[in-house]
Design goal:
heterodimer, A: alpha+beta, 22 strands, 27% helix, globular, B: mainly alpha, MetI-like fold, 2 domains, 15 helices, 0% strand
C-alpha cells in the first residue's frame, strides 16, 4: 500500500488509514483529516482522495486565498458578549478567545472543513508510535514587539499550561496530559500532583520544538488549536487586556468588559518599526465586538448595528429567516447532557436510571426543539460529527419496560425527581427538559424542572444530583469521553466509575488503527449507554447570520472567528 | 430644617454602614467566593482546581484576607473616594459607576420630563369630574399601561416600532455613537408603565379635593371654575402625587433593570444585574451606597417639598 502514496504520506498511521479508505471502512474526509494531522499537506490529501479542496492560499499559508475583487478597509462589527480578558490559559468561554484570536495566534488552525493546518508552526511530524511530535516553527513571524517568534517562546507557553499554579484547563488536553507524570506528591485531597516529565518539552533549535510524550497522541495539532492554547509572548503578565502582545494582524485598541472590544490593524511594532504580518493580506482595518447578551444579538443585527453575531438560538430562527442576511448552520458536537450522579439516591439504583432513560424518545425531543437540524443523541457522549464515532444499534423508547424497572426498584407508585437547568446555551435547554418531563410522565416519573440563572448553574453543575449541562464541541470523541467519564477525573459530573469503561476507553485511545479505534470507542460508548448515566437527546447545530455585504465569512463548528480574509462591499 | 437635614444625613450614614456590613458578611462566605471563581475561571476549570491552587487564586484576588480587615480596608477607601476595583470589569468602581449613573440619569430625566406633565394633566382632568368620559378613558388607559409588565410593553413596542415599522432602533446599545432615537423605546416603556400609576394617584387625590367643603364653597361663591381648579384645588391635590413622583426616583434607579437589560442600555440597573450575577462585591457595595443615598435624598426632597405645598406642615 505504501508505494501508492506520495512523499509526505509515509507515516504508518496514514498508510493504515489509506488501507481502510481503499477497503471502504473509512470515508475520504476522515482520511484527509488524519493525513493532515500527521503532517501531510491538506491540499495533497484532498487531491489524493479525489475531493475538491476548499480554496486555500497557495504556499504555506493556512488561510483562504486572496480575493481579487476584495476591497480593503472597513470595520467589521460583531455582536457578542464582551468578556473579561485575564489569561488565555484559563479562558473559560470561546467569546474570550474570539476577542484575542486575531492578536494571539495558535500553533495550528482547524478550518471550517475540520482539517487542521500549520499556523505558527510551518509543519510537523509525528514519530511512528505517535509519542514524539516535532514542530517546525514558522520563520519570519514577528511579535508586536518586533522580535521574531522562536521555538523557545512556544516551549514557554507549553510549560506554562502544565504549571498547576496557572490552573489551565489545557492540562486536560491529550497533548499536555501526555507530557505530565506523577510527581509522587499528593495534594490536600490526596490526589496525585502531576508535573512535566523530564525532557518532555525539548527545544531542538531556534525553529524546532519537540514534544516527548509518555503515550501516543493522535490529536496533538488539533489540541493546539483548542481555544485556551493561544500563544503568548513570554513577557506576559495578567491581565491580558493590559498586556496583549501577539503575532496577529490586529491589536487591542479599546476594551471595556460588557461594552466593547475594538481591535485595530497593527502597522508599527512597539518600538516604532514597520510591522509585517506573516499571514499575507488582511482586508479589514478594524474588528469591533459590541456587547450584546445572547437574546439581544439578533435584534442588534436586525437594526443594522452589526454585520454579524456570535450565535442565535433556535427560538430565534424564524426571526432570523425574515432578515436580510445569510444564515450559517454548523453541525457540531455541542449538546445537553442530562446526567445523573450514580452515587446519589435514587440514581444509585441502575434500574431507576434505566427507567428514566428508557422513558424518553430522544428523536422526538430533538425534533421538537430543532426540527430537521441537529443530530439525535444516543445517551453517550460521542457525536456523529466526531471522526471517531461508530454507530450503535438505534435506541427505542420503552415506557412499559421503564414502568417494570421502576416497580422492581420499589417505585411502583411513581418516582419524583428534580433536574436543575441553567439554560446556559439558551432557553432550549428548558424546552428539551420539559419535553422529557412530559414523556417521563407516561412511565410514572414526575420530573420537576428547576430553572436557575446560567451563572448559578455553573456553580453547581458538578454537584447537583440531576443536572442539564451543556458540553461544547470537541474535535474527538475520545477527548470528551476522557474528560467527562473516566473514574475520578475533575469534570466527571456524574461521578461515574466503571473500570470496564475506563479499560475500553484506554483501548480506544491506544489504538492507532483508525477503523479499529472507531469500533473500540463504540464499545466504550455502549458501556456508558448501558449504564444509563445520562439522557443525551440532542447534538445541536450552531446558528449565526451574516450581512450580505460581508464577503468570505465561513461558520466554524466551535464558533471560532477567523476574519483574516473577510472584506466588506 | 437644618436639624431635619442633619438627622437624615446621620440616618443615611448609619444605614450605609449597616447595609454594607451585612453585604460584606454575605459576600465573604465561601459560596460567593466560589461564585467569583466560577465566573472568572469557568465552572469547568474551577472543578479541576486543587484546594491548594484555589487558595493561591484567592490570595491573588485578595479574597483570603480576614473579613474585618477587608471591610475596614474597603470602608477606608470609600472615605477617601476609592470604591475599589471591579472583579469583572477590571476598572475602578468609581468611574464605572459614574458613567452608568450618568446614563441612567439621562433616561430618568426624559422619563420624568414626559411622565410628570402627562400623568398630572390627565390625572387632574380625570379627577375634576368623577365618572365623566375623560375620567373613564384616563382610568382605562392608566389601568392597561400599569397592568402590563415593563417587559411586555418593551416587547410590544419593539415589535411594532422597531421590527415592524422600522422607525426606531430595537436596542439602545448605541454602538455607532450617541443617537437620541435609541432612547425613545426605553423611555416610552418606562413612561407608559409609570404614567398609569401616577395618573391614578393624581386622579384620586384630585377627586378627593373636589369633594371637599372649601371647593364646594368656592364654587357656590361663584368663582370661575378655572380659578377654583388652578388656585384652590390644584395645590392640595398635588401633595399626594408629589410624594409618589419623588419616590419614583428610587424606582428609576434600581427598578429599571428589566428595561436596561432588554434594550441593552448601559445604565445603573444593568450594571447592578451584571455585578449580582458575577458576585462583583465592590460594584454591588458601591451601587448599594448610591441606592441608599438616593432613597434618603428622595425622602428629604419629599419632606421639604411638603412644607412648600402644605404650609401647615413645619419641622421643629
Amino acid at each position: 500500500m505504501s508505494e501508492k502514496l506520495p512523499p509526505g504520506f509515509q507515516h504508518p498511521v496514514i498508510q493504515n488509514a489509506f488501507g481502510h479508505l481503499a477497503a471502504g471502512r473509512l470515508d475520504r474526509r476522515e482520511f484527509i483529516r488524519i493525513a493532515a494531522l500527521l503532517g501531510a499537506s491538506a491540499a495533497s490529501a484532498y487531491a489524493l482522495v479525489g475531493l475538491p479542496a476548499p480554496a486555500y492560499s497557495e504556499g504555506q499559508l493556512p488561510f483562504p486565498p486572496d480575493d481579487p475583487k476584495a476591497k480593503p478597509g472597513g470595520v467589521l462589527k460583531v455582536a457578542m458578549q464582551v468578556q473579561k480578558l485575564e489569561d488565555p490559559a484559563t479562558f473559560s468561554w470561546v467569546q474570550m478567545s474570539n476577542q484575542s484570536r486575531h492578536t494571539l495566534e495558535y500553533v495550528a488552525i482547524t478550518g471550517p472543513d475540520n482539517i487542521t493546518r500549520p499556523m505558527l508552526a510551518e509543519s510537523w511530524a509525528a514519530s511512528p508510535d505517535l509519542k514524539t511530535w516535532t514542530f517546525s516553527i514558522r520563520k519570519g513571524v514577528m511579535w508586536h514587539t518586533g522580535e521574531e517568534l522562536t521555538a523557545d517562546h512556544i516551549a514557554w507557553n507549553v510549560m506554562r499550561w502544565a504549571d498547576p499554579a496557572v490552573a489551565s484547563s489545557n492540562v486536560g488536553l491529550s497533548v499536555v496530559a501526555g507530557l505530565l507524570e506523577d510527581t509522587g506528591k499528593k495534594d490536600d485531597k490526596g490526589k496525585p500532583i502531576m508535573g512535566l516529565s523530564k525532557g518532555a518539552v525539548e527545544v531542538v533549535d531556534k525553529y524546532t520544538l519537540r514534544l516527548n510524550m509518555n503515550r501516543p497522541v493522535l490529536s496533538a495539532p488539533e489540541d493546539l488549536y483548542n481555544y485556551p492554547t493561544a500563544i503568548l509572548h513570554p513577557s506576559f503578565k495578567p491581565p491580558l487586556s493590559e498586556n496583549m502582545i501577539g503575532t496577529g494582524p490586529f491589536a487591542l485598541a479599546e476594551f471595556n468588559v460588557g461594552d466593547k472590544c475594538i481591535l485595530k490593524r497593527v502597522t508599527k511594532t512597539k518600538d516604532g518599526k514597520d510591522f509585517k504580518y506573516w499571514g499575507g493580506t488582511v482586508y479589514l482595518d478594524e474588528i469591533a465586538y459590541y456587547n450584546f447578551d445572547g437574546d439581544n444579538q439578533l435584534s442588534a443585527f436586525a437594526s443594522g448595528d452589526v454585520h454579524t453575531l456570535y450565535d442565535f438560538t433556535v427560538e430565534q430562527l424564524d426571526l432570523a429567516k425574515s432578515l436580510p442576511g445569510v444564515i450559517n448552520a454548523s453541525r457540531t458536537a455541542q449538546n445537553i447532557c442530562c446526567r445523573m450522579q450514580v452515587d446519589h439516591a435514587p440514581f444509585t439504583d441502575k434500574r431507576v436510571r434505566q427507567a428514566i432513560v428508557m422513558s424518553v424518545d430522544n428523536a422526538k425531543v430533538k425534533n421538537l426543539v430543532y426540527g430537521d437540524d441537529g443530530d439525535v443523541g444516543e445517551d453517550h457522549h460521542v457525536a456523529p460529527v466526531h471522526p471517531d464515532y461508530g454507530p450503535l444499534p438505534p435506541l427505542k423508547r420503552d415506557v412499559e419496560g421503564a414502568k417494570k424497572l421502576l416497580k422492581e426498584a420499589g417505585f411502583e407508585n411513581g418516582l419524583q425527581v428534580t433536574i436543575d437547568v441553567g439554560n446556559t446555551d439558551g432557553p432550549w435547554h428548558q424546552t428539551a427538559c420539559e419535553a422529557m418531563r412530559d414523556q417521563m410522565k407516561e412511565a410514572g416519573i414526575d420530573l420537576r424542572v428547576n430553572v436557575m440563572p446560567a451563572a448559578k448553574y455553573w456553580e453547581i453543575w458538578d454537584k447537583t444530583p440531576f443536572g442539564c449541562t451543556a458540553w461544547t464541541h470537541r474535535p474527538l470523541g475520545t477527548m470528551v469521553m476522557s474528560l467527562g467519564y473516566r473514574t475520578g477525573v475533575p469534570w466527571n459530573e456524574s461521578h461515574y466509575a466503571n473500570p470496564a469503561f475506563d479499560k475500553a476507553l484506554d483501548a480506544a485511545e491506544a489504538t492507532l488503527d483508525v477503523a479499529a479505534r472507531k469500533d473500540k470507542l463504540a464499545a466504550a460508548a455502549k458501556i456508558l449507554q448501558d449504564d444509563a448515566v445520562m439522557v443525551m437527546p440532542i447534538w445541536r447545530p450552531v446558528y449565526t447570520i451574516v450581512a450580505q455585504n460581508v464577503n468570505g465569512y465561513q461558520g466554524h463548528p466551535t464558533e471560532y472567528h477567523q476574519f483574516n480574509k473577510i472584506w466588506l462591499s | 430644617m437644618l436639624k431635619l437635614l442633619g438627622t437624615r444625613l446621620l440616618q443615611m450614614i448609619l444605614i450605609m454602614g449597616i447595609i454594607s456590613l451585612i453585604l460584606f458578611a454575605i459576600f465573604d462566605s465561601e459560596k460567593f467566593k466560589k461564585q467569583i471563581a466560577v465566573n472568572e475561571l469557568g465552572g469547568f476549570a474551577v472543578s479541576a482546581l486543587s484546594d491548594q491552587d484555589y487558595q493561591v487564586w484567592l490570595e491573588k484576588k485578595g479574597l483570603n484576607v480576614p473579613f474585618y480587615q477587608r471591610y475596614l480596608n474597603w470602608a477606608g477607601g470609600v472615605a477617601r473616594g476609592d470604591f475599589g476595583k471591579s472583579f469583572e470589569k477590571n476598572e475602578p468602581v468609581g468611574s464605572l459607576l459614574a458613567a452608568r449613573l450618568l446614563h441612567t440619569g439621562l433616561l430618568a430625566f426624559w422619563v420624568f420630563a414626559l411622565m410628570i406633565p402627562l400623568s398630572l394633566t390627565f390625572g387632574i382632568i380625570a379627577g375634576m369630574k368623577e365618572g365623566s368620559a375623560q375620567d373613564r378613558l384616563t382610568s382605562f388607559v392608566a389601568v392597561v399601561t400599569t397592568s402590563l409588565p415593563e417587559i411586555a410593553t418593551a416587547i410590544i413596542l419593539t415589535v411594532v416600532f422597531a421590527l415592524g415599522l422600522h422607525w426606531l432602533p430595537p436596542n439602545a446599545a448605541m454602538v455607532n455613537g450617541w443617537e437620541w432615537q435609541a432612547l425613545v423605546l426605553p423611555v416610552l416603556t418606562l413612561v407608559l408603565y409609570d404614567f398609569g400609576y401616577v395618573a391614578r394617584m393624581t386622579r384620586a387625590s384630585m377627586a378627593e379635593v373636589m369633594h371637599s367643603q372649601y371647593i364646594r364653597t368656592a364654587v357656590l361663591k361663584g368663582l370661575p371654575y378655572r380659578r377654583v381648579i388652578l388656585r384652590h384645588a390644584l395645590r392640595n391635590a398635588l401633595i399626594a402625587p408629589f410624594t409618589i413622583i419623588v419616590l419614583q426616583l428610587n424606582w428609576l434607579l434600581s427598578g429599571v433593570v428589566v428595561v436596561e437589560v432588554f434594550f441593552q442600555y448601559a445604565g445603573f440597573g444593568k450594571l447592578l444585574l451584571d455585578a449580582a450575577l458575577y458576585g462583583d462585591i465592590y460594584v454591588i457595595q458601591a451601587a448599594t451606597l448610591v441606592a441608599v443615598f438616593v432613597a434618603v435624598l428622595s425622602q428629604i426632597i419629599s419632606d421639604v417639598g411638603y412644607t412648600f405645598l402644605n404650609p401647615r406642615i413645619r419641622f421643629a
